Every structure is written in structure tokens, then in C-alpha cells.
Amino acid sequence: MGKRDNRVAYLNPIAAARARGPAPNHGTTIQDYLSRPRPSWEEVKEQLEKKKKGSKALADFEDRMNKRWKKELEKNREKVLGGGEKKEKDKEKEKKEKKKEKKKSSRHSSSSSSSLSNSDSSSSSSSDSEDDDEKKKKKKRKRSSARKASDDSDTESETDSRESSKKKKKLDGEKDKVLKTHFMTLKK
């Protein structure tokens, strides 16, 4: 029996590639990229100018918005200039009244608080301002009296502490005397 033939055919890869010939073109090559058509400097300038100007749609939109804002400004100017002083005063009064109502409702429970009608509140706005002034004065009085009371209590507490320290010293002295006499009687 003879030996088996274990030989394998060897192909040089470079030689095989040369034998196949040039590879087919699949897509663009570097050469194509380098030789592509380019715009001239004048065309580039035109494109840049167009970009700076922006799109027509955006410009139209901005114009529309500007017109709307101008209309709103004119309306507001007419409101302010034409009898706006009276309206502003009314608005300020309403704001004050609302603030007062909020304060009152926060002080009282929501079930007991009642909302005032516009006619009642407009007639009582002057009396409300007077009531607010009186309340402020009362608060100041309470604060000042509270300060005086705290000052008085501080002075009283200082005198009390002095007196109590004197009493303690007296009691300690008396206790010492009692203990000494007690020990003396025990020793005898």
C-alpha cells in the first residue's frame, strides 16, 4: 500500500489578482471626487447673499406678526389715552378690594366668609381704607406694648434671680448650721 498524497495546490494571491485584470468600478472613485464640477467664486457669493436674506416665507411671517403687534399696540394706546385715567383708578380699586377679600378669607374660614358685591365694595372702599389705617395703628400699639412688657419682664426676672440667689445662700447657710449642730450632738 502506498502513501496518500497530502499535497495542496498553492496560488499566489497577487499573481491571481493580476490574472483577473482590473477591478470593475462600483460607485465614485477618488479621481471622480477630485474632478467634480465646482461653482465659481461669483456663484458662491450669490448663494451667501441669498442665505443672509433668509427665506421669503419667514420674511412674510415676520411681516404679518409685526402688523398684528402694531394693531394691538394702537388699541392699547387708545385705551390708555382715551379715558384711561378713570379706568386705571377703577382697576386699582378692584385690585385693592380683591387683596382685602383674600386677606379676609385667609383669616376666616371659607364657609363664613362672604364675597361683597361690586356696588357695595365700591361704596365702602373709603371706609375700608380707614379701617386699614386703624388696624395698622392698633398693631403698632400692640407691638410697642409687647416690647414694654418684655422689657418689664426682663427687669423683673433679673430682680427675681437676684432675690432667689440671696435666698439660696441663706438656705445653704442655715443647712450648714443645722448639719454642724446635728454632727455635734452625734459626737457627744
UniProtKB/TrEMBL annotation:
Residues 108-127 have a biased composition (Low complexity). Residues 96-107, 136-146 have a biased composition (Basic residues). Residues 39-49, 59-95 have a biased composition (Basic and acidic residues). Residues 18-188 are annotated as: Disordered. InterPro entries: Fam133. PANTHER family: FAMILY WITH SEQUENCE SIMILARITY 133 MEMBER B-RELATED, PROTEIN FAM133. Belongs to the FAM133 family. This is Protein FAM133-like. It comes from Sinocyclocheilus grahami (Dianchi golden-line fish). The gene is LOC107558576.
